[in-house]
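User: Reviewer 2 asked us to show a designed sequence for the structure in our supplementary figure. I'm pasting the structure tokens here. Could you produce the per-position amino acids so we can include them in the response letter?
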């Protein structure tokens, strides 16, 4: 059958190309734009159908809609009123209020059955509609089983000054003589298999026994130079001040022995402060070790400003998210992981600026007059 030609105007071609190449559009709208562009270039319908994976009717409808109303009618969906509302606002508000209140005694959370049981039955035309509870919950995105962890301290002037100082530090260009090093630690439970797992086979996943052996806990100190593409991970039995001081000593006398000044970014754990160095090394030795060090502390409840947490998250996903039975195996695996990352010089791109902080957190700022 002979194909009916379609000739787009120059203005419509520009609109179609813009839809195809950039912006956020529904997939079906982009497909219609592809169809119109292909028809304009004389591409056979059979080829359009095969490449786009659509039916012949869709091609015909796109052509007919363009001839009738142009690009607006052919590409974009017409707004529709939608399905008529089945629920009155009072019943909907009642379910929402119940779901947002404390659950009944003896219950951890609300369930759909409990919501239906506790609210007064809504009737329409003389009969009850038991499916309303799920419909109300779905419409209002009520998910009583979900828990989202959230913690943010009072955004006082001290909080903001520390945050601004760190953001300014992160915005500085790379300076080999003054590296910025973010440090944090992670506790890890050593877990072994009670029975050897079955290896993966064709069409069969790896199988491991649900039972496991607990072999104690260990600690990992992680130091990362975000813009330098370096990280140093040390596995220790504990994370006390002696272990932390030894880790910092190793950094300053080893990898960063030639640095003129070292900027250390830390959270507010009690082992991270200068006093611990004095307690472990003595005042004179601590002064000698730290003469090139400048400490930068995150605000309280703001460890997200420490980029070491990003590196620890990557380490957990790529290396630690499995059963590791002993510290020797853990050290071997961590060494291999960090060697590969350092060889590839994996960096961390920090794009959060002071302007972003003011825009997103500004409404929570607390002045000294309102504390």
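Assistant: Here is a per-position design you can include in the supplement:
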């Amino acid at each position: 059958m002979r194909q009916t030609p379609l000739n787009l105007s120059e203005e419509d071609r520009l609109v179609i190309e813009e839809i195809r190449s950039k912006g956020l559009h529904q997939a079906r709208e982009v497909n219609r734009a592809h169809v119109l562009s292909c028809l304009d270039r004389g591409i056979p319908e059979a080829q359009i159908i095969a490449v786009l994976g659509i039916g012949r009717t869709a091609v015909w409808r796109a052509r007919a809609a363009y001839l009738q109303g142009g690009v607006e009618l052919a590409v974009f969906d017409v707004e529709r009123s939608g399905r008529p509302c089945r629920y009155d606002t009072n019943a909907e508000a009642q379910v929402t209020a119940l779901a947002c209140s404390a659950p009944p005694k003896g219950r951890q959370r609300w369930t759909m059955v409990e919501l239906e049981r506790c609210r007064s039955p809504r009737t329409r035309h003389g009969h009850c509609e038991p499916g309303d509870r799920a419909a109300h919950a779905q419409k209002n995105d009520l998910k009583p089983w979900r828990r989202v962890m959230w913690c943010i301290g009072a955004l006082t002037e001290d909080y903001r000054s520390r945050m601004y100082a760190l953001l300014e530090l992160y915005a500085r260009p790379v300076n080999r003589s003054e590296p910025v090093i973010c440090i944090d630690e992670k506790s890890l439970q050593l877990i072994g298999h009670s029975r050897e797992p079955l290896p993966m086979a064709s069409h069969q996943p790896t199988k491991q026994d649900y039972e496991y052996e607990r072999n104690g806990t260990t600690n990992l100190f992680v130091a990362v130079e975000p813009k330098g593409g370096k990280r140093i991970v040390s596995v220790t039995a504990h994370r006390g001040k002696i272990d932390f001081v030894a880790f910092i000593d190793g950094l300053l006398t080893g990898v960063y022995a030639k640095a003129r000044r070292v900027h250390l970014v830390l959270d507010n754990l009690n082992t991270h402060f200068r006093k611990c160095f004095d307690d472990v090394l003595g005042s004179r030795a601590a002064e000698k070790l730290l003469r090139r060090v400048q400490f930068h502390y995150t605000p309280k409840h703001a460890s997200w400003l420490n980029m070491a947490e990003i590196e620890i998250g990557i380490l957990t996903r790529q290396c630690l998210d499995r059963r590791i039975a002993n510290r020797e195996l853990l050290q071997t695996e961590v060494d291999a992981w960090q060697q590969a990352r350092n060889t590839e010089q994996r960096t961390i791109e920090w794009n959060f600026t002071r302007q972003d902080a003011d825009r997103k957190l500004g409404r929570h700022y607390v002045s000294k007059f309102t504390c």
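For the response letter, you might also mention the following. Strands lie at 123-124, 127-128, 180-193, 212-225, 230-236, 262-266, 293-297. Residues 89-139 form one domain.
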